[in-house]
Amino acid sequence: TPAISSAIGLAAAICYMQEHIDLEVLKIHEAYLCKRLIEGLIDTKKAVIYGPIDQLKESGHIVSFNIYGWHPHDVALYCDTCGICVRAGLQCAQPLAEHLEIGPSVRVSTFAYTTEEQIDHLLNVLSK
């Protein structure tokens, strides 16, 4: 049986995006938050950030990083106890992670509903 409810949900999401979200404005918003997050992580001097940092600051919406001395799953659990949802692990890219010799990482994604206050809260939690 085809996943009818999934197809209907996807169609609804596409319609919502087309009607309510300007993709150019979304790109600017996501990149701004991504830059804010990256600069905050750099300021903590506790994080290693993966990927092309300058490009992420200009057009990114996902940041992968690790906190020195902490396992990514522990970081994710700690964030969860503070009301922050992040992803930890190999990000469905185990062969790449192994090739780059980075192992698991923490990943933060931004979107239209992500706020500056949420990024600041995350940075505050991570600085502790």
Question: If you had to describe this structure to a student in words, what would you say it looks like?
Answer:
This protein has 128 residues and is an alpha+beta fold. Helices cover 59% and strands 14% of the residues. It contains six helices and four strands. The protein has helices at residues 4-20, 23-44, 53-59, 72-81, 94-100, 116-127; strands at residues 47-50, 62-67, 87-89, 105-109. It has a four-stranded antiparallel beta sheet with strand order 1-2-4-3, covered by helices on one side. α2 (23-44) runs antiparallel to α3 (53-59) and α2 runs parallel beside α6 (116-127). It is globular, with a radius of gyration of 16 Å. The relative contact order is 0.16. The mean pLDDT is 95.
- Beta-strand portion reads 5-15%
Q: How many beta-strand runs?
A: 4
Span between termini: 49 Å
Q: Give the C-alpha Rg.
A: 16 Å
Contiguous uncertain segments of 5+ residues: none
Mean pLDDT: 95
Largest β-sheet summary: 4 strands, antiparallel
Count of helical regions? 6
Strand order of the largest sheet: 1-2-4-3
DSSP helix fraction = 55-70%
Which structural category fits the helices and strands? Answer: alpha+beta
* Shape designation: globular
Name the helix and strand elements from N-terminus to C-terminus, one letter apiece.
HHEHEHEHEH
